[in-house]
Write a structure and sequence with these properties.
410 residues; 0% strand; globular
Length: 410
C-alpha cells in the first residue's frame, strides 16, 4: 500500500494535465482525487518535505491575502466564488511539497501527456471548426472565410488566449526535446510544432503572438551562439527574425492593435477596439487603486467598483452594458488585494525567473516569459483554465528540487 500511493498520485496528475485542454469539466474532480491521494501518501509514508520554504510561504501568503479580502468585500457571494476558483493556488504548492520520488523522476512524462492532449484537442477543434465553416473552395479561400474557423470560432470551449498559452508551452517542450535529445526521430517533432504555430495564428490571440515572437527570438539567439560560420551566423538568424516579424504582422488582430495604439496616442481615447477598451479599463482601475492602495477593494467588489468608475468617466450607454474585467492580472491583483497582493505576486514571479536563470532551465524561463506577457492583457487568474495552468506548472517547477530537474532535463 505504501509503495502504491505515490504511483496513484502520479497517474492522477497525468489525468489532470490530460483533462485541462480536453475534458475540462473533469479537471476539478481529478484535482480533488489527486489531492486526497497525495495527502494520504504524505501521512502514510511521512513524505512531508518542503523544498523551497520561500516559495512555499509566498504561495500560501498569496492565497491568504485573497482569503482575507473576503472580509472587507461587500459582495460576499462573489468573493467566495473567487476563492473557489483560486483554490489551486493553495492546493498545488502544498501537494508539490510532498516528496514523491516516483512522480519527480517522471516529470517529463507529465509534460508529454499534456503535449499529446494539446495536439489532439487542437486537431479536434480545427476539424470541427472547419466543418462548421462551410468553405466551398479551400484552395481559393478568402481572409473573411478563414475567419469562420479562427479565434473564438476555432476555440469554442476555452478562451483563445488560454489555448495559445497552452500551445506555446508545448511548442517550447518540443523544441527542448529536439535540442537536448539524441535520437534522430526527435526531428519529427517539427511537424506538431508547425501545426501548433498554425493554430496560434488562427486563434488570433495578441498575447499568443507576442509570446511566440519571444520564443522565436530566444531560440534564434541560441542558434546564433552555436553557429561558427560568420556569414551563416548573420544571415540565417536574420532571415528567421524577418520572416517571423512579417508573418506575425499579417495578423488582423495585431494590425488592429497597432492602429489602436496609434489612435490612442493621437486622440487619447478609443473604445471601438479591444485595445482601446482595455486602455479605458486600465485608466479606471488606476483611479480606484489610488483610492484603495493598501488592501484593495476586496475579491468580491472588483467589478462593481470598476463599472462604477467607468460610468463616471464616460456616457456611452452601449459600453456601460458590457461586462468587462480588468484585463490585466497585475492590475486586478492590486485592485482587489492592494499593495500586499501585488507585492506577493511580483515576488513569486521574481523567484520563478531567478530559479529558471540560475538553473539554466530554458523551459521554465520561457514559461515565466509566457506567464508575464499573458498576465498583462488578460486577468488570467479569473478563470479555472488560467489558475490551474499557472498553479500546476509554476509550482511543479518551483517545488521540485533543481538537481532532479537537471537529471530529467526539464
Amino acid at each position: 500500500m505504501k509503495q502504491l500511493l505515490p504511483k496513484i498520485s502520479y497517474f492522477l496528475l497525468l489525468l489532470v494535465v490530460a483533462s485541462m485542454p480536453t475534458f475540462r469539466s473533469f479537471t476539478p474532480i481529478l484535482i480533488a482525487l489527486f489531492t486526497f491521494s497525495s495527502l494520504l501518501h504524505a501521512v502514510v509514508n511521512k513524505a512531508w518535505k518542503i523544498g523551497d520554504k520561500k516559495v512555499f510561504i509566498a504561495a500560501l501568503s498569496f492565497f491568504a491575502i485573497h482569503l482575507f479580502s473576503v472580509i472587507y468585500s461587500s459582495q460576499k457571494d462573489v468573493a467566495w466564488f473567487d476563492i473557489e476558483v483560486k483554490l489551486s493556488l493553495l492546493v498545488f504548492p502544498i501537494l508539490f511539497s510532498i516528496e514523491n520520488k516516483y512522480l519527480q523522476s517522471r516529470v517529463n512524462i507529465v509534460f508529454t501527456v499534456f503535449a499529446v492532449a494539446i495536439v489532439l484537442a487542437n486537431s479536434y477543434l480545427l476539424f470541427t471548426s472547419m466543418s462548421n465553416a462551410m468553405i466551398v473552395d479551400y484552395f481559393h479561400i478568402t481572409r473573411d472565410e478563414m475567419w469562420r474557423f479562427s479565434s473564438s470560432y476555432l476555440s469554442k470551449y476555452i478562451h483563445p488566449s488560454y489555448l495559445s498559452m497552452y500551445n506555446l508551452l508545448v511548442i517550447v517542450f518540443f523544441i527542448e526535446a529536439i535540442v537536448k535529445g539524441k535520437s534522430a526521430i526527435r526531428f519529427l517533432l517539427i511537424i506538431p510544432i508547425f501545426f501548433l504555430i498554425v493554430i496560434i495564428s488562427l486563434l488570433q490571440s495578441k498575447a499568443g503572438f507576442l509570446v511566440l515572437a519571444a520564443v522565436i527570438i530566444f531560440y534564434t539567439w541560441q542558434l546564433y551562439k552555436k553557429i561558427s560560420n560568420k556569414i551563416v551566423r548573420i544571415i540565417l538568424p536574420s532571415l528567421i527574425i524577418i520572416a517571423s516579424i512579417y508573418g506575425i504582422s499579417q495578423s488582423r488582430r495585431m494590425q488592429l492593435m497597432y492602429s489602436s495604439i496609434i489612435s490612442i496616442a493621437e486622440k487619447g481615447n478609443v473604445t471601438s477596439t479591444s485595445t482601446g477598451i482595455r486602455f479605458v479599463i486600465w485608466r479606471a482601475t488606476s483611479k480606484i487603486i489610488a483610492e484603495n492602495p493598501i488592501l484593495g477593494v476586496g475579491a468580491g467588489d472588483i467589478k462593481p467598483e470598476l463599472y462604477a468608475q467607468i460610468d463616471k468617466m464616460q456616457d456611452d450607454d452601449e459600453e456601460r452594458e458590457k461586462k468587462y474585467n480588468v484585463h490585466n492580472q497585475f492590475l486586478e491583483t492590486m485592485l482587489g488585494q492592494g499593495i500586499i497582493g501585488i507585492s506577493l505576486l511580483i515576488y513569486l514571479f521574481y523567484l520563478g525567473f531567478r530559479k529558471s536563470i540560475k538553473t539554466h532551465n530554458h523551459f521554465f524561463l520561457l514559461l515565466m516569459v509566457s506567464l508575464t506577457i499573458n498576465f498583462f492583457p488578460e486577468s488570467m487568474l479569473n478563470q479555472e483554465a488560467g489558475v490551474v495552468f499557472f498553479a500546476l506548472f509554476y509550482y511543479l517547477f518551483m517545488m521540485i528540487p533543481s538537481e532532479i530537474q537537471r537529471e530529467n532535463a526539464i
